[in-house]
Structure formats: C-alpha cells, structure tokens
Specification:
elongated, 1 helix, transmembrane helix, 133 residues, Pilin_N_archaeal, Immunoglobulin-like, Flagellin/pilin_N_arc, three-stranded antiparallel sheet, transmembrane, Type IV pilin, alpha+beta
C-alpha cells in the first residue's frame, strides 16, 4: 500500500481569538457612543450652550492730554459696545456703530478702560487696557 501524507499548515495559536475580541470591543464602544448621543438629546445638554458676543475695539491713550479713545473696529455679532473707566468720564457710551468712537477724559496712568460688547442679553468683555503702563 501506498502511504498518503497530508501537509497541514501550521496555525499560530496566538492569533485565533483576536478577531472576536476586537469585535466585542467595537460593539461596546458603539453602544456607549449611541447611549451618550441619545442621552444628550433626551436630557437637552446642548440647549444651555451660549455663544460669546464677537466684536473688536481699539483703545489708544494720549498721555499729553490724559485722554483715551476707544474705536469700534469690527462688528461680529455685537449690537453695541459699552465703555467704562476706573477714573474719568466717558463720552458717547454706548457706542452704536462700527467706526464710532468714545473718549475718556481725565484718564491718568493706571486707569483701566473696559469695553463690553452686547447682543441681546449676552455680554462679553472684548477689550480691557490699563493705560500708561
């Protein structure tokens, strides 16, 4: 009789269970992500996020006259700017349009100028500068 031999390729036993483990891990990850998305819709987590008001203001200081000039340089989402000073009086506050200016007289060294942008009920400080320092 003739002897028949079969060549059986060697199988690496370490790789046999890798595919099912990766599949289980991916399924758990997908389940967690779906649960988080559904929970955020149901509980309304995204409803309380508010945008900051966007605007640009330039603050310049004239030390010879102790005067600060604030200029609204870019609008963004703001409807008006309010200028406050730690010392001195502010003219033309709030500022209503891009390009308009407000002057602060009596602003000595160390005076802090704060520019706040408004859009409805939302307000954001867009510029703050202590002059003369």
């Amino acid at each position: 009789m003739k002897k028949i031999s079969f060549d059986i390729p060697e199988v690496d036993m370490d790789e046999r269970g890798v595919s099912p483990v990766i599949g289980v891990i991916l399924m758990v990850a997908i389940t967690v992500i779906l649960a988080a998305v559904i929970a955020s819709f149901v509980l309304g987590f995204g409803d309380n996020v508010s945008q900051e008001v966007q605007a640009g203001a330039s603050i310049s200081y004239d030390a010879a006259n102790d005067e600060v000039t604030v200029t609204w340089v870019s609008e963004g989402s703001a409807t008006q700017l309010n200028v406050t000073s730690s010392a001195g009086s502010v003219s033309s506050s709030p500022i209503q349009n891009v390009g308009d200016t407000a002057s602060v007289s009596g602003a000595t060294s160390g005076t802090t100028i704060t520019v706040t942008a408004f859009d409805g009920d939302t307000q954001t400080v867009v510029a703050q500068k202590t002059v003369g320092q």
